[in-house]
Amino acid sequence: MRADLGGGLTLLGFDPPPDEVDAGGQLPLTLYWQAASALPGDYSARLSLVTSDGALLASERAVPGRADYPTSAWLAGDVVRDGRSFLVPAATPSGNYTLRLDLLDATGEPLGPSADLLRVTVSAPQRSFALPAAQHPISATLSGQATLLGYDLSRVAIAPGQSLTLTLYWRAEATARTSYVAFAHLLDGAERIHAQSDRVPAAGARPTTGWLPGEIISDAFVLTTTLDVPPGEYVLEVGMYDPASGERLCLPDGGDRILLPTPIQVEM
Predict the structure, then answer these.
(1) CB atoms < 10 A from the CB of 73, how many?
(2) pLDDT of res. 131
(3) Fewest CB atoms within 10 A around its CB: which of 97, 225, 228, 239?
(4) Is 53 helix (H, G, I), strand (E, B) or coil?
């Protein structure tokens, strides 16, 4: 598509995101802008998610292109690639929506008409707010984002090469802007990892950007030991981290992991 959104900027086209997304999911897209002339000010581009009757559900503003190359520095004829991602709010009901784009001046006023980019179908997950009947109750809160309420273990003794299933029960304390990775590691006495799983919660199905406060998320990990793992007593550590920085969420005492109190025995 090609659209004149005012202010001397033309949208030449865009690489569209998927037209189906879960509530709390991301819509990645790339916009391509061209300046008709030198631009008089610094603009921002606003993406909005609107309902079928035109009601605004959510919007995000960002500088077109790069923050270190504002539109006031663009020259006539410049073509600028603008990669961005729109976060669909966690509380969005299932339904069909329109992703809309417009340009704003420095005061936040529209420079011209908006452009409807595409129709998007949003699916809200099934949610539970009931407290779990965990085998092993526990309470540990990570950075005000999530509290581990308990866990289940399929077994507490395994042989080399065998697997165990660890199911964590998280309660969302807030809706995160970051999709955190949850991890579970089996450690020996020297804190060497002998089995691990790091991924978005619920095997990728329930990113933390889609959690609602008070919601309970069941998160099962399958941990498989290597064939040469030595016999002995092991411990499980769990937690979450930002995949972009590697920074872990922290407990109130500053610790960056939860050590589960149930030991795991590796037997020959």
Answers:
(1) 13
(2) 86
(3) 228
(4) coil
